[in-house]
Amino acid sequence: MAKAHEIWIGAYGAKNEVGITRVELLPDTAEFVKTAEYGGIENPSFLRMNKAGTRLYAVSETDEYVDEDGDKAEGGQLASFPVDAESRKLGPGQYHPTHGNHPCHLHLTPSEDWLAVSNYSGASVMMYPIGPDARPLAPVIRFRHTGTGPNADRQEAPHPHSVFFSPDGQYLFVADLGMDKVMVYGRGPEANEWSAHDAVSLEPGAGPRHLAFHPSGKAVYVVNELDSTITRLSHDEPGKLVRQESLSTLPTSFEGESWCAEILASPDGRFVYASNRGHDSIGVFRIDEQTGELHPSGHVSTRGKFPRNFALSPDGQWLIAANQNSDNIVLFRIEQQSGLPVFTGTELRISKPVCVLIR
User: What is the rounded CA–CA span in Å between residue 123 and residue 220?
Assistant: First the structure.
C-alpha cells in the first residue's frame, strides 16, 4: 500500500475560523482524508514547511493585528508552528511582525538558514534568520521597493508578490507586480549581508506575480497576473536573468476577464503549469528540450472558481488545485506522456482555500 501524501491547506478567514487544514491523500484510492483543522491565525494565505517536517511557516495576510500586549499594530505577521513527529499535530504558534501590510508569500533557502516574506501592500521584503530549532528569529534585513506601472488601479505602487531563493541559496528573486520587475538580491560574505544585485523589466502592465525555476536551474518562468502571460527568463549566469519570449496562458477563443495566479514546473522538467482565475483553468505548456521555449499543450478546468493556488506532488503524479471562490480543493492525476491533469473525481470542501502544500 502506497504511503499517504501529507497535505496542508491555507485559507482566508477570520482568526476564529479554520485557517489551516491537514489532509492526507491516499494514492491507492485517490481519496482525500481530512485529519485536522486549526484556527487562531487570520488569513494564513501561504504556507511552507522545512524539509524535516518539524515546523510549518505561514503568513498572516492582514494590515492590522493584535500584539502580545493586546494592542493593535499595523501590518501582518509571520507565524511558525512546531509539528509533532508522530501525531503531525501543530503546536502553539510563534509570531513575528512583517513590518508591512498584507504579507502574501514566503520562501526558505535550500539550506534553511534564511526565510523571506513579501509584503504586497507594504512595498517591502523582510528577511529572517532561522535558528537551530527551525524557528525564525527577529528580522534583520528589509528591502524597500519604489516604482509604479501603467495600470493605475493595480500598479499605483510597488507590490512585491512573491519571493524565491535560487537553487544554490545565493540569490533572492522578488516578483513585483506593481513595478513590472523581478528584483534580484545577492548574499554577501558576511553572516547577515544581503544587497541589491540585479533587476529585469517585464512588459509594461504585465504584473509579475510568481515564478518557477526549471529543475536544471537554467530557466525561470514568470507568471504575469495582469496580462495573463508567462515570460521565460534564461538563467545561464548565477543571479542574472535575461528576458526571452512571452506567451498567453489563455485559449485564443477566450474573451472574458481572467488573472493568473500560480506557476510551477514539473519535477521532470518537461512541463510548466499556470492557473487562470476567471477562465478557471490550469494551462499546460510543454518545454522544448532544445530551446527551452514553451508551447501550449491545453487547458483543464479546475472544477471550481478562482484557482488562486495549486501544487504538484514531488513524484509528479498528482496536481491539487485550490478554488478560492467555490470552497473546494480538487485532485487531478497527471497523464505522464502529455502532462495534462486528469480529474480523478475527488474533491474536498474547504472554505476559501488559497494555498496547497504537499509534503
Answer: 23
pLDDT of 100 higher than 90: yes
For the cut 90, the answer to whether the pLDDT of residue 154 exceeds it is yes
Give 10-51 pLDDT, tens digit per residue: 999 999 999 999 999 999 999 999 999 999 999 999 999 999
**Residue 312, pLDDT score:** 98
Give the total residue count for the chain. 359
Q: Residue 313 carries which DSSP code? A: -
Closest of 138, 106, 100 to residue 120, by C-alpha: 100
Strand spans (E) along 278-337: 281-287, 294-301, 307-312, 318-323, 328-334
Residue with cell 513575528: 96
Q: Side-chain half-sphere of 113: how many Cα atoms within 13 Å? A: 8
Among 259, 261, 243, smallest CA distance to 184 is for: 243
Reference 20, options 10, 31, 29, 33; nearest CA is 10
SS3 call for 153? coil
Using the predicted structure, report yes or no on whether residue 139 has a pLDDT greater than 90. yes
Q: Identify which of 63, 13, 68 has the alpha carbon closest to the alpha carbon of residue 41.
A: 13
> Cell 532544445 identifies what position?
290
The residues spanned by each domain of the chain are 1-40+276-287+297-358
Cα distances (angstroms) measured from residue 297 to each of 221, 250, 285, 315: 16, 11, 5, 21
DSSP 173-199: EEEETTTTEEEEEEE-SSTT-EEEEEE
pLDDT tens-digit readout, 202-231: 999 999 999 999 999 999 999 999 999 999
- What sign does the dihedral 210-212-218-224 (CA atoms) show? negative
Residue 184 has φ and ψ, to the nearest 5°, of: -125, 130
Q: How far apart are the first and last CA of the chain?
A: 18
Sheet with 171-176, edge to edge strand ranges: 160-165, 171-176, 181-187, 194-201
